[in-house]
Design brief:
Blueprint lengths: L2 H9 L13 H12 L5 E2 L2 E4 L3 E4 L3 E7 L9 E8 L6 E6 L7 E7 L5 E9 L4 E12 L8
Parallel strand pairs: 1-9, 3-9
Antiparallel strand pairs: 2-4, 4-7, 5-6, 5-8, 8-9
């Protein structure tokens, strides 16, 4: 194959840019429903510690703590974190038990844009407790284009 035929053949190939996933607050609400079903989370007992303004969305520190005695009869079973504008609305779920001693999870997450973060704790009595925080991101992480 000569150069002319090769270039003519590749000119017929069209490259379409990939659009980012359509993440919305509705997608976050659906992800929450999949985890907690028809239960209504109660505000309280959960503390979501995340900076309100971050310069770079690539590494956003996040800590979730839940008020609980962490005994066999009264403990946190799981902590779930959701966001409304990243491609995947369910950031993480962590399973806990009384042997953990404290209901605290700390990590770093990526945020693709300024958005609301929701933390939900499931307790051993079947209740769901929640807290939310708004984060302003000046440089997005998940949707950055490579240069």
């Amino acid at each position: 194959m000569d150069r002319r035929h090769f270039l003519a053949g590749t000119a017929a190939v069209v490259v379409l840019p990939l659009a980012p996933a359509a993440a919305t607050p509705d997608a976050m609400a659906e992800a929450i429903r999949k985890v907690i079903g028809m239960a209504t989370p109660i505000e309280g007992r959960v503390k979501l510690d995340v900076p309100p303004l971050v310069e770079n969305g690539s590494t956003v520190p996040l800590t979730v703590s839940v008020e609980s005695p962490m005994t066999a009869d009264d403990h946190v079973k799981a902590i779930h974190v959701f966001n409304e504008k990243n491609p995947q609305p369910n950031v993480f779920s962590a399973r806990l038990g009384p042997q953990n001693g404290r209901a605290v999870i700390g990590t770093r997450i990526k945020l693709g844009d300024s958005q609301r973060i929701i933390a939900i704790a499931e307790t051993s009595d079947g209740k769901f407790w929640s807290a939310g925080a708004d984060v302003i991101v000046t440089l997005a992480a998940c949707l950055e284009e490579a240069t």
